[in-house]
Amino acid sequence: MNFLRKKRWSPYLGGVILGLLNLFAIYCCHHALGASSAFTRYVGMIEKWLAPKHFATLKYYHIYKPFWNFTAIAVIGMFIGGYLSARLSNDIKIRLIPKMWGKRFGNSGILRIIVSIIGGICIGFGARMAGGCTSGQGISGGSFLSVSGWLAICCFFIGGIITAFILFGTKDY
Amino acid sequence: MKTIILPLIIGIIFGFLLQRTQITKFETIVNVLRFKDFTVIKFMMSAICVTMIGFYLMAEHGLIGNIMRYIAPVRIAAIVVGGIIFGIGFALLGG
Question: For FRET with A92, which of A9, A74, B23, B24 sits at 20 to 30 Å CA-CA?
């Protein structure tokens, strides 16, 4: 019980459990872990409901058919799991501005919201363009030793490292 | 059962692990990109190692059928451009 309430698990342990979980998903559901394609399917479902005519013209949804597949359901589970974990270890904090961001850019909530929205759009757009996010292309694609997975990991970090250094430099915050 | 409950449970454990190893935190993400905190790399690479070994062992013994259906096509330009855009968002949002 103490272990379940511990605030932070070793990333090595977490990684090994995640690796086994991924194997379990592949063996039982014939599906590797991923996240970003779920949002495509949610949007597809909404679009199909709101604008069915326009929906039918979009080729993308012929490939990513909007239905509750493995990933779409698993992402719902991820929200629940994240909440459960935070609740168990008493690690729930609602805050608009992360500490590190506040020290660097001040406590303007509007600035943080604008940057977050831009960041979120980049993540969503980029992940779908690259064929997956850090879970799908990164962890799953990486472990299949696929060229696309490793190329994607490299590019995720190239974009991220450059942006992070531009924003925060090398100073400790 | 297999199509709803199992993915849901897998998702719950996945979310639990992400939160508990603290890799969902803004500081953790931005600091791995500034080479100051390697939690994300430790987590990702240990997961990759375990899945890699298990995946190819299962493939070897014919437990998962054709492995090509798991492997995404290589579209170099899309992956490079999309990956870099993703990376920018990764650092801006920190998530």
Answer: A74
